Amino acid sequence: MITSEQAQWHRQTAIECNNRAWELTVLPRTEGGDREMLDAAHTSAWHWARVGTELNRMRATMLVAAVHALLGHGATALPLAIEMRGYFLARSDTPDWELAMTHAVYAHAAHAAGEVAAHSEAHRQATAALAAIADDEDRRIVARTLELVPQP
Predict the structure, then answer these.
(1) Which of 41, 73, 91, 108 could crosslink 149 through cysteines, CB 3.0-4.6 Å?
(2) What is the dihedral of CA 12, 98, 139, 48, to 10 degrees?
(3) Which mean pLDDT values do the consecutive 10-residue runs of the chain (152 residues) have?
(4) What is the domain range of residue 67?
(5) Which chain regions cross the lipid bilayer (predicted)?
């Protein structure tokens, strides 16, 4: 049984690692930064698995898929991206920014896995979803992720 203090620690650690991993995704690549990014993404996912909701776990899955795709690990990125994509596309309350991010991460994972048709279609969907984001700051954040996805 996890105490409330332990649960708070898990949540705080998950949030810190999540934020650090996303921050590293848009910085110039270095071997040390790539390792830290991978470790932070997996650590965040592990902590959310302990205390998070299904939404927290799927957002962590999105992050891990994004990191694996960025590092060229298509064989691990694509199954994770498929899982989180199914979750977010099935929800009627997925925010506009998260829908665009879902398509962007899936496109990157498909590219890393060599799935040309899936990459092309998801990139098109990500671009359209990006244009539909109402909030300028949300659009800017998703655009930074989409810029990392190779063009079809």
Answers:
(1) 108
(2) 10
(3) 96 98 96 98 98 98 98 98 98 98 98 98 98 98 97 96
(4) 4-146
(5) 60-82
